[in-house]
Amino acid sequence: MKLRPYQQEIVDYCEGALAFGSTRIAIDAQTGAGKSVIIAELCRIRSSDKIVISVNISKLVMQLSSHLDAMGIKHSILKSGMDERYDENERVQIWMDQTFDKRAAKINFKADLVIKDELHIGVSGERFKKLIAKVQPSAIVGTSATPYDGFGVALKDYELCSFTDIKSLTDSGFLMPADTIICKAGQSIDLDAIKTSGDYSDSELDDLLGNDEYRQSVVEAYMEHASGKKAIVFVSGISQCDELARVFSENGVSVGSVHSKQTAKSNELMMDAFEGKSMDDISVLVSMGKLTTGWDFPDCNVIINCRPTKIRSLYTQMIGRVLRTTKESSDRALILDMCRSTTDHGLYNEPFIVYATKKEAKEETYRCRENVIDYMDSVYPHDFIVEREILDKEHIFAGEATSQKARLWRFRYARTHLELIVAASELYESFYNQEHKMSKVKWIMEGITPTISWMSVGALRSRLTKMLKEGKKFGGIRNYPTWFRDNVLGGQSWKS
Description:
The radius of gyration is 26 Å and the shape is globular. Strand 9 and strand 10 form a beta hairpin. It is an alpha/beta fold. The protein folds into three domains: 160 residues, Rossmann fold (3-Layer(aba) Sandwich); 182 residues, 3-Layer(aba) Sandwich (Rossmann fold), CATH 3.40.50.300; 75 residues, no CATH class. The chain contains 20 helices and 16 strands.
């Protein structure tokens, strides 16, 4: 099996890192990057190691097994209902986490290496700690499309191995390009008042989105932009699954729902009908969490996102369900955003840099959002904002904002004194209908003390906020730092 160039780079990096003493490595491998191929190749080249592949999603067991078979690697499978495939004497083991947890007392296998698939799920949980304590590996290698916690912070104690991202995979033809439509009905929902404890409260989301007016807007968005196409819909609660499915059905759309309150058999039948494996035919499948990770159906290239979340990894995993390529090379995926997810997290293929602290991760999220804001308010003036392709073509950035929302955005998230001053001056101009051009910064400069050079951006923002609210103008420039006088008042532009 010939590896793609980035797959080979990942394998080489891991092999080198392990040889030089690394004990915990997180492989950043996006949806469609071929995690199973990478895992199988690691098992092949480390031919003297005893290896446990830890899996927490049932469908991934056979996917991994088939790749090991393709490379001629004998292996054992520990999974409920597959007792005949388990052999403790095999060098390579695929273990379903839930099955291991129940049978741990009977297992005596010791491993040199543990490879954890979907590393972001349960890496710090008791079940995985129990597995590590049992097999006592020298090293752990994990794979994930989101090798960070829910807020985008790098997994603690893991060395990140990253050689690709969604954009490069798309450019290389390994993932399908996607158009994003940000629907006004979703963009207008007010999430600010909802309580958060890590993520939005499910019960409060139900109160906000649990009405037929919102559900009807979801159906209308599907009918206008993706009618007749296979679409996966993610929602925020189990009751939403069935209620949204009801409204789809009332509008003549063949629909099914999948969630934990239905039997496993019922969910299986729904998914078979959606995937064309039965006589029934379903165009739209509504789910809460069962299909967010590990499920792939390449013929489904439409996602309708009705699940607001502050968790970046969840957002990324949901979008990844529809990016796999199909036989039709001309196909494009479609992301219908009905819950502000794009404006909360950024466009789906905006490269996300993984940082070690929550503060850095938060700033990276702000950066990812920037390209969306002005696009949303001024590029496409109707009810929908469309297509990353347009954004790239017209080179529209938040730094060139003309809309009030974008101006407010820049003011709120400015990182330097200069950015903050220019953003505040733009707001003053728009609030009070004053025209200043580049000299418009003068009204702010004249009201700020000479301590501007050491004042924090946060303190300056507070002072400017008060000025904006009061509409004050000031006179008399005195003793300001030379670089402000020369560079700002001399005509330096926003971009520079």
